[in-house]
Amino acid sequence: MLMYRPLYYFGSQGTPDVDYDQSIGEPPQWSEDGLTVTVKVKPWKWSNGETLCADNVLFWVNLMKVKGDRYGEYVPGYFPDNLTSYGKLAEDTVYFTFDKAYSKKWVLMNQLSTITPLPRAWDRTTEGPANASGGVADVPAVYDYLMAEQGDIIDEGNAHRTRWADSPVWSVVSGPWRLKSYTLEGLVTFVPNEHYSGPNKPYLDEFRQVPTFSDDEEYEMLKAGPHGEGGIQVGYLPLSFASEPATDPTVGGPNPLADTYTLVPQVAFCIRYFCLNYNNPTVAAKIFRQTYFRQALQSTLDQDSAVRDIYQGYAYRQNGPVPMVPATDLVSPRQRDGAWPLPFDVDRARELLAANGWDTTTTPAVCVNPGTGPGQAGEGIPAGTELSFSLRYVEGRPALTRLMEKYRKDAAAAGIELRMEEVYGSVLVAEDAPCAAGPDCLWEMTCWNGGWAYHYPSGEILFQTGAGGNFGHYSDPRADRLIEASVTSDDLEALYTYQDFIAEQVPVIFTPNFPIRLFEVANNLGGFGPVNPFGMINPENWYYREDA
Hints:
- With 548 residues, the chain is an alpha+beta fold.
- It is built from 13 helices and 24 strands.
- It has helices at 54-67, 104-111, 139-150, 215-223, 283-288, 291-299, 303-310, 333-336, 346-354, 398-414, 425-431, 477-488, 492-505; strands spanning 9-10, 18-19, 29-30, 36-40, 83-90, 93-98, 124-125, 128-129, 177-182, 188-192, 207-209, 234-236, 261-266, 270-276, 358-359, 366-367, 388-394, 417-423, 445-447, 451-453, 509-510, 517-522, 525-526, 543-544.
- The strands form eight sheets. Strands 14, 17, 18, 19, 20 and 21 form a six-stranded mixed β-sheet that branches. Strands 3-4-6-5 form a four-stranded antiparallel β-sheet, covered by helices on one side. A three-stranded antiparallel β-sheet has the order 9-10-11, with no helix packed on it.
- Helix 12 (477-488) runs antiparallel to helix 13 (492-505).
- It starts with 8 loop residues before the first strand and ends with a strand.
- Belongs to the bacterial solute-binding protein 5 family.
- Residues 28-426 form the Solute-binding protein family domain.
């Protein structure tokens, strides 16, 4: 986002909505029949002086058309699969014609929002310039070239990244910043893009991202102060180091570093959860497919006490698939208050398991009534199966470790054994990744301490069969139908019906939500707010106050 501005930019005014001033695209225009949308591209400049144009937009769409399954927000059947035609009307104008009428807000927020215009410098292969902006024939070769230029995506070292700043490909940018250097140690330095055409050009001469590897290291860096040796002007206060409770997570509580920093929570329009692997080839996946088991698993996670005792009021419970904070009318009436549908209740969880063929007098509980009839465990679950599962979670996060330890104890009280394992973050994401059903797809449950930030929370990205963000490969025909209804209608009742179904089905285990960052901002740094609810930062707005 610092270097490549999307077609539409969201959240810069502190609300979960589009900001047309900061967007490359003008407001979309619709045909009378609601099938065709036209977008005019502003005459902004790339850093090499070229003008942004329709071809830059179509380049991205053509890549999506061929390589969509490599993109996290791709959903089979939706953009660009749901286009009957698209193309260039003028050098600065593109059109998209859809296969039927969809919610116009959904198209803007969840379809056009996926597009990031790409420069001609990317449209090439090992043989030289290509034409992936004019059609799809060159896309495979262009994609392979770009992936090779990027370097090994799972390589833990930074050797290949040190070459990015001088690359004739990656050095051409549209955003307010361009890359100056990327060191072997992971220190990333940006400088202003002198050709940036959008509003809010950078005040600062340089902007650096400094890596840390644990909450402890981050806090020690902050304690040195913004002007101390190795000091940072914007950092993150780890939740475990918040000294006193907060009564409002959007405001925060007393700041232990108030002498030198201002505490600014970044509450994101997101949900948090951990995944179950429905493609696991063992009996684990067959158990995960049982709704009663997922409901029991959710019911043993004590969100309310975690909000109070672990996150010290900097968190809030998450009941389902639509963000509870910031408050919007998108949350269904049943979920706006209380803990519906699955409050913390170990006894209820144990009863659910016992009523479906499990002996819960021992932990792990044992299947004593196999089969698919009433009161039986479910398809493919043999007698003698134990409710014992691996749950891996990211290391270096003390608050998450405390949450997982309490969860382990409460689940055990209901008959579910969770074998916990802390794993280094990048290893966890690489190993517990979406995988096709087969002998190598062996992870069971995984928690990376994150979730998903939405533009419009209709669910096709996370819970539609085959969606790119559907990490565990959950699939349910009714969920697919309800998602389809929510994207083709602007009636909020369709969104409510979908989210209430998902909340009861719990395809993932919802965990307490909390600000994605508790920013600590140097007291003499201005222009930091409003905070973007989609997780972005805008250092081009930052400046030093002489009166501070």
